[in-house]
Amino acid sequence: MKAIVQRVKNAHVTVDNTIISNIGNGLMVLLGVQEGDNKKEADFLVEKIIHLRIFEDDQGKMNLSLKDVKAELLVVSQFTLLGDCKKGRRPSFTKAAAPDRAKALYEYFIGRAIESGVVTKAGQFQAAMDVSLVNQGPVTLVLDTLDA
Q: 14, 18, 80, 145: which is the annotated catalytic residue?
């Protein structure tokens, strides 16, 4: 699994000109499910993301986690994170999990975040979404379970 994690002041997802999810202060996660991923990778990423110390403390140092500051999480499925652009000019998505498998793990990821006590919102799987956010910092991190 790959995740792009962005610390945001706010973020929202729009489908067909209707906002379907929005958060205030928190993390916006673009999540790509790779062929061969399973619940182990999802569990690892959820725990890593909700405990990342990337929010500032009273001294302005990144020492606090999403849970520490009681911020929100917005998770958006994005298979294009798995695009391979090494050959040619058109990305190959052969590393991305099949849609049914990807959806199951995406929903599992969201469920685990909710179970951990984090207010969690989501995009709409396989929809054409517009994602808007105000990146705070800016703070953006790339997490990949293959690198863990």
A: 80
